[in-house]
Every structure is written in structure tokens, then in C-alpha cells.
Amino acid sequence: MADVGQFKGARVQPTTGSRGLSRFLRRYGWGYIFVMPSILVFTIFTLVPVAWSFIISFQDFQLRRESTWVGFQNYSDAFTTQNGVFLEALRNTVYYALVTVTANILIALTIASLIQPLNKYAQTFFRAAYYLPAVTSAVIIAVVWRWMFNTQWGFLNFLLSRVGAEPVKWLADPDIALNSVILSTVLTVPATGIVLFSAAMGSVPKDYYEAAEIEGAGPVRKWWSITLPLIKATTLYVTVLYTIASFEVFEKVYIMVPSGVGNSTQTIVTQIYQTLFDQRRYGVASAQAIVLFGIIATIAVFQFRFLKSDVEY
Amino acid sequence: MAVKTVSRPLALRPVRLRWKTLLAWVILLLTTLISLFPMYWLFITALTPTGATTKTPPDLLPFNASLENFERLFKQAANYWSWAFNSLVITLSITAFHLFFDTMAGYAFAKKRFPGRTILFWLILSTLMIPPHVTLVPSYVVVQTFNLRDSLWAIILPGWANVFGIFLMRQFIQTLPTELEEAGRIDGCSEFGIFWRIILPLSKPAIGALAIFTFVRFWNDFLWPSMVLIKNASYTLPVGVASLQSEFATDYGLIFAGAALAALPMIIFFLAFSRYFLDGVRVGAIKG
User: Fold this and answer.
1) How does pLDDT run across A71-88, given as a tens digit for each residue?
2) Is a pLDDT exceeding 60 seen at residue A279?
3) Chain B contact present for A115, CB below 8 A
4) What is the mean pLDDT of residues B154-164?
């Protein structure tokens, strides 16, 4: 009888007693130990701040005294105070994103397609050459462009003078400044896109092209009907990548046009920076950051839906 | 995903395609030139003596190359080497953390079974989409409250929270055969030993890519450091170079000397490891 009782007890125990815990730890403990440091840092420096940022965005947040709840006040303040400069920043950012993302995708696709037929060494050379500016700090690139855009001594106006054109006030004219920043982005070849596209194009099975050749398809037809549909997943990914990056544009604008020439080159992030760093309006800055998050999340979801609709996997 | 490029020898192609090939080369070389020109201009201007930077027409080649700008830089921006040192300390601390702990976490997410694994992983993954600017305000509040201005830790610790590496390592380690771990276990290897002696050495290619990406990303980081680092001596290189621009507004020679010197380590680093860089871009992209 006693034996049976002990036996029964032993069967029940693992789910409740300390032996159960030790067995649980023996089995899963190492998994938790391995993820622990990362999860800890992630929780403290990402999860908590993100949640806190949401909270601050609904508060009149003060450093040295009690903060009060203000509902959506910060969100409406973000858009209405200072003559609605944030709205202008939003418009500028959307314009910047539309132009640069479209240009970047088209340029990356074209260059990757042109690289594709070359031999391995030429491919590696071009990819490396295109990628070099991408490892250089955006601050440094912006410093160089600012000098090249200089009205008096800049390289671009020197080129213009060579063809007899009048000098352009690239960064000083509020009607042109944002377009100049865009020009500098477009003229820096989108290296990541090229590398990703050419990897995707390289993995398209060669038989498809051979079959198309037998059917009498030319290079453009092959590109349009085989290459493009088969690299659609990559196109989607690259588009999302560049869209997010362009909505977060900061260093370029901040360094090239520190004054903002009126508000013509204000972007979402330069606004967040000013609201937080210069004006210390914590609540409004949080609200602006959340708006940026909302925009990026919406666009990402929308792009995935739109581009994924007829891809089969 | 090994990508093998098969190229057909030029001679086998129909002759009428030749001019198209030529056109392709012209376009590629031209875009390369345009894309690299700012980098070229950076170094040319840095080597051009003061008077000559504002000359019309500008020298397209370094005819009067001199190191005069650099001498002035070290004299007038006396903290330049402190900036470089700060950049190095910050970047190395962040990279070292990620190489070790991201591989560990990536290994657990790829190979270990434990309750909550899927939820934790998706939680981490979903935050990849949150722009880093969302955490700016709380981070800045903490820096203000505890007076952490000019502390390098205020840059290093948030840098550790970047989760891209966990994801990258998990994707890579998933492709490693599980038999090797089991063999280690049978041979009496401890769990940490399996990670240290088997997983870590096998993950070298992905760790290399992660090292490069983390290093470049944080070496070039500007927004957050520029908010936290107030004293000139505690700047990092990007913050310092930006400050040169506002301090020596018209001395382009000096500004460019500072910028060129700050760009040089990454350029050398890239030229030495360009293959790993380019492979890394692809590895990082296979997000599924």
C-alpha cells in the first residue's frame, strides 16, 4: 500500500513541487539563460521606453514636477502650434519619400539588370563601388554635398557656368532647397537595393530565360515577363526598406540646411528633434514620434498587402 | 542561399547585341563616377590648401596637394583624437555585446525549445518596425533626470537593445545541422560548451556580417549622440564633424580634413572586407 502511495505521489508531484521546477529548468533552463541578457536589455531599452513614449504623448510631461493627463492635446498641439510647421514637415517628408523611393527603386532595378549579364569580377567591382558611399556617415556625405551646392564656389554651379547657365541658389532658395536635398539622395546610387536586386536576379532559374528565347522573346520582354514577376518579393522588401528610411530622413537635412530656409526643408524627424532638444516639449515630441510610427506602420502594412496580393509562395 | 552567377562568354552572343553591352558599360561606369564623386571631392578638398578651395575653376585633381588643412585641424580642433577615441569605445562596446549575446539568443531561438519562445521572438521581431525615434523622448528624459549628459554609457546601453542581430543569427543558426549539437551532448559537452565550441565557430560567416553592420551603423550614428554629448571633448566623430561645420563655417579645408579623416577608417574597413559586406547585405535581407 505504502509503495503504491509513494508511486502515486511521485507521478503527481512534478507539476507542482520543487522537483517539477528543477525538471522544468533542466529541460528548458538553458534556453532561458541564453536569451536572458538580450531580453533583459530589450525590455529595459526598447519595450519600456516605447510604452512610456505612448504614455508621455498623452501627458503634459514635466521633468521636475507632477505630470498631468491631457488626452489628445499633444497630438493637436503637434499639428497646430507654431503655425502648423509639423504639417509642413509632414508634406515635405511625403514629397521627399515619394520622389526618392520611386527614383531609388527604378535606378536600383536598372543598374542591377545591367550588371546581371556581366562576369563575376565586373559584378563584384560595381557592387563594391556603389556600396562605398553607403558605409560613410550620412553626416560626412551631407557636409560634402553642402559644399558642392555652395552658390559661389560649389562644384554644381561651376558645372552650370561651364554650359553658360546662371548660378543656382541650391540650398538658399526655399523653393529649391528640398529638391536639392532630394537630388543629392538620388545621385547617390541606392547600393543596398542594387545588391539585393542582383542577388534576387541571380537566383532566377536560367531555364526560364532559355524557354523564353526559344519562344522568341527579346531581352526587354524577358525582363518584363520573367525577371520582374520573379523578384517581386525582393522589390517589396526593398520598397519598404527605402520608404522607412526616407520617412526617417534627418542627418542630410539637418547638416545641409541647418536653418531650414523658412520651413521648406523641415521633415518629421527634424521637427521631433527641435521639439524635444530645443524646446523640451516632451509630450508634443512624443506625439510626433508616435505619428511617425503610425505612418511607417501603415505604409509597411499597405505595401505588403499591395505587392503581395498576387505573389504565390 | 548560395547565388551562383553563370555568365555566358561574350563571343557566343549575337554580334548585334554588342552595342547594347557597350551602352550598359557606359551607363554603369557613369553612375559609378557620379556616385563616387562626392567621396572623391571630400578627399580632394581636404588636400587643397585654404586659398585654393575657393578658386574658380576648382582643381579637379590635387595639383597643390598639401597636409596644411590637417595641421590646422589638429591645432584648432584639439579634441579630434578624443572624438575618435570616444567613437571607438562606443562602437566596440556595442559590437562586442551584440556578437556574443545576439549569437546566444539567436541560437536559443533557432534550436532550443522552451515555453514562450515563439511569443518572445515575435515580440522582438515586431519591434524591428518601430522607428528608433519613438524611444528618443523617454531616453532623453532619463538622461536629463539622472544627469547622464556626456556619459558614453548613455549611448552604449541603448545600442545594446538593437535586435536586428538576434534575428540575423537565428536565421543563420537555423540552417546548421542539429546532429552536431547532439554529438557534442553525447561526448559530454556542457550546454555552454556546445554553444562555445560548436555553434560559435560554425556561425563565423554570420557573425562577420553582424560585426560589420553593427560597427558601421554605430560608428556613423548621429542623432542620439548629438543630443546626449554636450561637452566638446565627449563628442563622437560624426558629432564632432558636424560641430566643425558650425564652428569653422567658411574654412572648408579644415572641415573637410576632419570629415575625410573620419570617413577613412570605414572606407579602409570596407575595402578590406567588401566581400563580407556584400554577402552580409544579402544574409540580412533574407527575412522571409
Assistant:
1) 999 999 889 888 889 999
2) yes
3) yes
4) 92
| pLDDT for the residue B120 | 93
Residue A244 in contact with partner chain B when CB distance is under 8 A: yes
Say yes or no: A6 contacts chain B, CB-CB below 8 A. Answer: no
The answer to whether A31 faces chain B, any CB pair under 8 Å, is yes
ipTM of model over 0.95: no
d(CA B248, CA B236): 18
Cβ atoms of B266 and B219 within 8 Å: the answer is: yes
Helix then strand count (H, E) for chain B reads 15, 0
Check if A26 contacts B (Cβ < 8 Å): no
Residue range B155-172: average pLDDT? 91
Which cell goes with B95?
559590437
How far is Cα B281 from Cα B288, in angstroms, rounded to an integer?
14
Interface list for A 153-182 with B (CB within 8 A): 153, 155, 158, 161
Q: How far is A183 from chain B (nearest CA, A)?
A: 12
Instruction: Tell me the three state secondary structure of residue A239.
Output: helix
Which residues neighbour A137 within 8 Å (Cβ) at sequence distance 6 or greater? A251, B219, B220, B222, B237, B238, B241, B262, B263, B266
Query: Per the structure block, which three cell numbers stand in for B107?
Result: 541560437
* B197-231 exposure pattern, b = at least 16 Cβ within 10 A, e = fewer: ebbbebbeebbbbbbbbbbbbbbbbbbbbbbbbee
Judge if pTM exceeds 0.90.
Answer: no
Question: For the segment B67-77, what is each residue's pLDDT rounded down to a tens digit?
Answer: 989 999 999 99
Give the count of alpha carbons within 13 A of B140, CB side only.
32
Phi, psi of B41 (to 5 degrees): -65, -35
Query: Under DSSP, is residue B152 helix (H, G, I), strand (E, B) or coil?
Result: coil
Does the pLDDT value for residue B195 go beyond 70? yes
| 8-state DSSP, B58 | P
First-last CA distance in chain A: 61
Q: Which of B285, B276, B282 is nearest to B209 (CA)?
A: B276
DSSP-derived letter for residue A69 is E
Of A118, A124, A269, the CB nearest to B133: A269
Bigger pLDDT: A303 vs B135? B135
Nearest CA in chain A to B42: A144
Q: Which of B56, B58, B108 is opposite residue A31, by nearest beta carbon?
A: B108
Q: What is the largest CA-CA distance in chain A?
A: 109
Using the predicted structure, report yes or no on whether residue A119 has a pLDDT greater than 90. Answer: no
Nearest CA among A217, A196, A199, A200 for reference residue A208? A217
Percent of residues in chain A assigned helix, strand, coil, to nearest 5: 75, 0, 25
- How do residues B39-78 score in pLDDT, each as one tens digit? 999 999 999 887 777 776 777 777 778 898 999 999 999 9
Residue of chain A whose Cα is closest to the Cα of B195: A34
Rounded distance, CA B70 to CA B73, Å?
5
Q: Do A133 and B35 touch (CB under 8 A)?
A: yes
Q: If you ran DSSP here, which 8-state letter would residue B272 be given?
A: H
State the pLDDT confidence band at A202, using cuts at 50, 70 and 90.
confident
Alpha carbon of B226: minimum distance to chain A alpha carbons (Å) = 10
Tell me the C-alpha distance between B34 and A240, whole Å.
25
Determine the distance in angstroms separating the CA of B182 from the nearest CA of chain A, rounded to an integer.
15
Instruction: Return the bridge partners of A69, or none.
Output: A59
A14: enclosing H helix or E strand: none
